[in-house]
Amino acid sequence: MRPRVTSIGLVMPPSPTGNFDYPEHIERDSIDALPCKPGVYYFLDRHRVPVYIGKSINIRARILSHLRCPQEAAMLQEAHSVEFERTAGEVGALLRESQLIKQLQPRFNVLLRGVGEVFSLRFVEDSLLVQPVGSYESDVSEQSTLYGLFASRSAAQEGLRALVRRHRLCPALLGLETATRGRACFACQIGHCNGACIGKEPPHVHQARLREALEQLQAEVWPYVGPVGIVEEDDGLRQVHIVDHWSYRGTLQGRRSRFTPNTKRVVDIDVYKILSQPMQNGELKITPMTPRSATSR
Question: Using N-to-C axis directions, what is the helix angle for 90-104 and 269-280, rounded to 10°?
Fold first, then answer.
C-alpha cells in the first residue's frame, strides 16, 4: 500500500487494518488540559518535536477525534504529548497553523509547508501587452502595474483569457494569439471581440477598456494602503492579526501593542486563500495599522 494524504494535509503511511490500539502512551495530563476553544495544536514526540500541527474551532473535540482514528495510527505512535495555543477565532487559528507548519515542517504535515511562487498580470505600457509575472521575477506586492493574484502561471494566463472574453477585448492585440495585420482575430470573426484588430474599435478606446478591466483585479493584489489588523475576540481574549500584502506578520494581544514591519514582503498564497474571500464579503473586523503605534480601536 502507498502512503496517502488526507484533506487536512496529514500524511497517512500504510498500516495493517485492524491493528489499532487507543494511544494510552500519550500523556493524559496534556489531553485533560485541552480547551473547547479555537486554536492550534501540536502532537509532540518524546523529544518535544512536533510531528503534526493542526487547527480547530474546538481544540479538545478535534484532538479526541484524532485519538480515535485508526487511519492515523502511525502519527499517534510517534506522539508522546499534546500542546495547544489558544486563538480568539478561526481566522487566527488558520493563520497561525499555516505559519507554524512552514516554520517547523512537521513530518506528518504536507500541506502549507512552503511559500510557493504567486503570479499577477503585468501591463506593459510600451507594447500594450499583458503578461503573467511571478513573485520570483518581480515584487507582486507592488501595485503600480500588477493586477490580480494567482497560484500559478497557467492560472494567471487563464485569468487573462477570462478577462478578455468577459470584456470583449482583442486576444490578438494582447498577445494571446498570433496577430495578422489587417485581418480579424478569431474572436472578432465569431463576434466576441469589438474589432480593435481591424480598426473597427479605435486603439485608445480598446486601451481604456483594457485598463478598466484590469482595475477590477487591482484590489486583489492588496486592497489597503499598508498593513492592517484583523480583530478577533472570544471569551475575554482579544487578538489583532497583522497582515501586510498577504503576508502574516504575527498576532498582537491586548488593547495597546507595538510592532515593527518587516521591510521584505513575501506574498503568501495560503494567507491570500484564507483571507481574500472573507475580506471581500465584509466578514472581518479590520483596523489600519501604523508602524510604531499599533493601537486597535
Answer: 170
